[in-house]
TrEMBL record:
Record protein name field: DUF3080 domain-containing protein
Signal listed as a keyword: yes
Species for this entry: Vibrio nitrifigilis
Swiss-Prot/TrEMBL keywords: Signal
Residues spanning the signal sequence: 1-20
Pfam family, one: DUF3080
Domain of life per record: Bacteria
InterPro entries noted in UniProt: DUF3080 (IPR021431)
Organism lineage: Bacteria, Pseudomonadati, Pseudomonadota, Gammaproteobacteria, Vibrionales
Amino acid sequence: MRVRLLIISSISLLFLSACQWQRPHIEQQFSTYLARIANIQDVAPMPEPSIQTQSLPDKRALNHQIPAVTLGILDSYQLRHCQLFHLIAERNSILGKVQDQFRNLDYQMALLHGLHHCMNSPEIDPKLKHQLTQVTKTKEQQLPWQWHNFLYTSDVMRHQLSSHRWYLRDRNYGDIQSALTALLKVNQWVMTRPHSTPLPQPITPYQETLDKSPLLGDLMFSMTNLTHWLNTVTQQLKHHDSAIWCGSNRDQRRFHQLQNVFYKYYVGDIQPYLASVDGAYQQIQLIAPLFASSSLSAVAPFPLKKVHQEFRQATLHHIAYWQHLFERCGVKVGK
């Protein structure tokens, strides 16, 4: 019986070790960091935070129904003078009617730009210009909806904004920076009135990159879960701060042990990873306003800037505890 229990215990330890070995490195580091702190405090560690995957709400909850606009008047021969006839004819072809959301967005922008060009053309008669004005007004109102649907309901963008993995600096994200810059330029054009200004470059050529290199989803996943881990460890430290003694004629062994844990696990392993995630965000922060809440959505489906602010705040709060502890114990940070 005793031998059986030993075998079962050994198997359990091997299973737990295997699970720990399979965990991502940053999770292992945080888990060890929390356990070492609790051990020094001589208390039980707080429950580890659950890892949250990064995902968007269901498509139906995000999709805006856009009424169809009858463009029969745009079949006019006069539109050949302002290069809009062929664009619409291509759209009305068999292939054009089954365009994905990338090509549809490029078409909607080109159409609106072409409408403005036609209205300013001297070769278009006043009656047709009046009709074009009405269509243009409707298309102007619909374009932000088209953009919103593209960002949050197209399969490619949903993949870009979703993730279940930690950001890695050496992971190949391809030419994602160029793709994000293209998104930013499209956003600026969509939000600018009137849409007679030069068109941004088409977004369709970046479809594959945005699909296969989900940098934004990885960053959102990482910042969200790092915030939870940092807050958990900070709570552990604060709730049992009284267990750490400092001052003359006091046993300061726990403080020195805690100090070693800080430098070994936080400074040695965790902080460099936090810096790499923050650095990656800084490189793409200009696109954060793209995903801010607007009149089209009461709650931002992908609050990139807000999550980064929470991540930075959690980091600052964590460091603030250590600074306070070191000051209380008469140790200068860095010593």
